[in-house]
UniProtKB/TrEMBL annotation:
A single MF term (Gene Ontology): DNA binding
Pfam families linked to this entry: Sigma70_r2, Sigma70_r4_2
Name of the protein in question: RNA polymerase sigma-70 factor (ECF subfamily)
Region entry Disordered, spans: 295-314
Domain RNA polymerase sigma-70 region: 7-69
Keywords: Sigma factor, Transcription, Transcription regulation
Gene Ontology biological process: DNA-templated transcription initiation
Biased amino acid composition, Low complexity: 305-314
InterPro entries, alphabetized: ECF_Sigma-70_Domain, NTF2-like_dom_sf, RNA_pol_sigma-70_dom, RNA_pol_sigma-70_ECF, RNA_pol_sigma70_r2, RNA_pol_sigma70_r4_t2, RNA_pol_sigma_r2, RNA_pol_sigma_r3/r4-like
Keyword Transcription regulation: yes
Amino acid sequence: MTRTHEFESARPLLFSIAYRILGSVADAEDAVQETWLRYAAAETEPDSAPAFLSTVVTRVAIDVLRSARVRRESYVGEWFPEPLLEDPYEDPERSAELADSVSMTALLLLERLSPLERAVFVLRDVFAFDFAEVAAAVGRSEAACRQLAVRARRHMGEGRPRFEADRRERQELAERFFDAIREGDVAALRELLAADVQAVGDGGGKTPVYGRGVAGADNVARLFGSMVPALFAIGGSFETRQVNGQPGAVFRDRDGKVVNALSLDIHGGRIQMIRSVVNPDKLRHVGPVADVRRVGRDTRRARRAAPADTAEDG
């Protein structure tokens, strides 16, 4: 098998490793490309191409993450990972587990870890590398990697929700949520939301979002119950998608350009968190990006012109 074929066979795994370490589609793609360049330039043939490629992409991702952390410290507002609509790495027996590992919640928990802890956790706990492979990839001893793994699991475990919904329950509740926002049914929305639900946006200081967030079932229900019908009124639309392995949607303007990507955190039988990525720099891989300020102005006008909401009485 040629180097090109070896690399292309490994590409889905390489991207999936890099994305979980970095939380950025663009940075993960760059890390995979750098891995190819180093592989193509290697003077000797590695004993194992997959092991060599996994090691290179992990080390490149660790270096990128260390520099990215400096940028994230000065990031304006909430920082969320770039939305991932499709994970190219497929393992039918572990599909649910892999989807959960790429959720917004999991990736934000990974932000608590050092770059080495994050890489060790991803390789060992997500992709089931043995400790010898992990040690070779991160350049540490097996004993050190075991310690890093213990620390990483402790940090990840401390932040996980107490009650996880099964995937069918998540999907059914999400469908009801999207039906309700499509109809502007505030009362139906309120029934689906946790009392302390939060809606938070990542605009990166470049586009308007919900200020510091909107909290509480009543406030969030009213926000989405009026905002989405107003988007429809100006010709916008949305399509439900799996966003980072969780129920979500991509919203578009009248020209089909991307306004934002939204994901739902569901557990305990209610929607606990609604995260919206609006920063255009994080949406370019999804498609052409809308002028969100214009969309915002137009939807506000549509909301003011709309008749008084009567959905709560229905």
